[in-house]
Amino acid sequence: MSLSNSFETHTLKYLLTSDSVTRPTAWYVALCTTDPTDSALGTEVTGGGYARQSVAFTISGNNASNTSAIEFPEATANYGTVVAVMIMPASSGGSASDMIVHAQLTADKTISTGDIFRIPAGDLDINID
After folding, report:
1. Is the distance from CB of 121 to CB of 66 less than 8 angstroms?
2. What is the pLDDT of residues 72-95, one digit of tens each?
3. For residues 88 and 38, what is the distance between their CA atoms, to the nearest angstrom?
């Protein structure tokens, strides 16, 4: 996963200055049909019963992983092909400056009516090296 430009700046301010930074208090996984970049949101899935899902993380060394499985509602319409995820600080809305991190999936996943997209516990990893 990659930090967004705004959260790279937040991290540097936190680590290397006495400037205060506002940190998120909630984290949500968003599914995208186009890849986000460090400065632009991907195309988030809409409709078909889709909703961002909350996520909690556990930290071990320089790795953060989701503490429990993340399960999206059963699709009531085709989502298309999900290619990436974003971590956002709210259950809806936001801009690229709100995006915390983003990543491409290791394998694209086409979500059709009746499918359920799941991320098993420990499979959503964020590493800082």
Report:
1. yes
2. 999 999 999 999 999 999 999 999
3. 13
